[in-house]
Write a structure and sequence with these properties.
393 residues, alpha/beta, Rossmann fold, Tyrosyl-Transfer RNA Synthetase, Structural Genomics Hypothetical 15.5 Kd Protein In mrcA-pckA Intergenic Region, Chain A, 6-stranded mixed β-sheet, 13 strands
Length: 393
């Protein structure tokens, strides 16, 4: 069982108020741990899941996670970090996304110790008077202290009153479920603090706040679908393994802190060990990939993914399983790469060819006018991790 100091410090960016939360935990009080999901998108990546892993640690001490499905706020869309208004979802789209989200959520969080609540439980019966009472507790100045709102207001970009309601509605969720602690990433600090402020105003014990750090994606920027740099929970173990192996070396200490149980003293020494050359970053990434995939998909899946990675990338063998694409007539290489999804666009296909990363049966392809003709089975490869078997008809 995790020690209290490690629970409150490891993989934690900030706690508001730390002393309060520590006293609650030391008293033996069973806490209600709030996490709200905004199911505007159904997929979760391992950056989102840093908070889920921390929730699981609290669950193991007997505390209850209260998962709030934002079926009302999702129809607004979280404005945090966005330069434009988001298209509103229908109730059915929200429901479908939430169900897919929960399938992934419970790969990490214990379902037996989780209470699932939908915002519609309290907002579907909200009257106009209730809305007035809630909106009157927040000022425009408070809302414009939100970095995203302020930026859009100052630059003259559209900022709807509906979007200003997002943090206010999220704040009321904390009142509705009587939250003791709310969890989230550092980018959610404004929204989460709104809940604490509202609880104080109506003489409820204000929730404490536990914020986890944001982790970098495969390109060094914040992990985000926008940048296509994520490691998604629903990716195959092979794809997870490959993406983790492509991470920059300097992200490893933080990843080890938030995604493993390796002793913190050892984690703190990773950066120095890599700088001194006493440890190979490749070996650290392989260990990290095993740890993460084991937690999500199981030890057998992690072992198989590692074996496949070693066979394909270290021993330069072909993967045993690869998608197949029928080929019945000659086709231009640019068109073929897009058809087989080895490139997302013709422009990307050209860039990959220019970079020397496209091979047919091991031979590098150069030029955009190459015609690929059907002839039995051929392997088209892009980079080190993408393969398609071309099957002639």
């Amino acid at each position: 069982m995790i020690a209290l100091d490690e629970l409150l410090n490891r993989g934690v960016a900030e706690i508001i108020v730390g002393d309060n939360l520590r006293r609650k935990l030391e008293s033996g009080q069973k806490l209600r741990l709030k996490l709200g999901i905004d199911p505007t998108r159904p997929s979760i990546h391992i950056g989102h899941a840093v908070a889920l892993r921390k929730l699981r640690q609290f669950q193991e001490l007997g505390h209850t996670v209260v998962l709030i499905v934002g079926d009302w706020t999702a129809q607004i869309g979280d404005p945090t970090g966005r330069d434009e208004s988001r298209q509103r979802l229908t109730p059915q789209e929200t429901k479908d996304n939430a169900e897919e989200f929960m399938d992934q959520f419970f790969k990490i969080v214990d379902q037996e110790r989780t209470e699932i609540r939908w915002q519609s439980e309290w907002f579907s019966g909200f009257s106009l008077e209730d809305a007035f009472n809630l909106m009157g507790r927040f000022t425009l100045a408070q809302m414009l202290s939100h970095e995203t709102f302020r930026k859009r207001y100052d630059t003259g970009q559209p900022l709807t009153l509906l979007e200003l309601m997002y943090p206010i509605l999220q704040a009321y969720d904390s009142v509705a479920i009587k939250a003791d602690v709310e969890f989230g990433g550092t980018d959610q600090k404004f929204n989460i603090l709104a809940g604490r402020q509202l609880m104080e105003q109506i003489d409820m014990t204000p929730q404490d706040v536990l914020l986890v750090p944001l982790i970098a994606g495969t390109d060094g920027r914040k992990m985000s679908k926008t940048f296509d740099n994520t490691v998604d929970i629903l990716m195959s173990p092979d794809d997870k393994y490959g993406r983790i192996m492509s991470m920059a070396d300097d992200v490893l200490p933080l990843y080890y802190e938030v995604w493993t149980d390796v002793p913190l003293d050892e984690v703190r020494g990773l950066e120095q060990a890599m700088a001194a050359g006493t440890v190979n970053p490749r070996d650290l990434k392989m260990r990290l990939a095993r740890e993460i995939i084991t937690q999500i998909d199981g030890a057998d899946a992690a072992k198989a993914a590692e074996e496949n990675f070693v066979r394909v990338f270290q021993q330069r063998a072909l993967p045993e399983d690869m998608p197949e694409h029928p080929l019945s007539a000659p086709v231009n290489i640019i068109e073929l790469m897009v058809q087989t999804k080895l490139a997302s666009s013709k422009g990307e296909a050209r860039r990959l060819i220019d970079g020397g990363g496209v091979r047919l049966d091991g031979e590098k392809l150069a030029g955009y006018d190459v015609e690929i003709t059907p002839q039995g089975q051929q392997v088209l490869q892009v980079g080190r991790r993408k393969f398609v078997r071309l099957v002639g008809e």
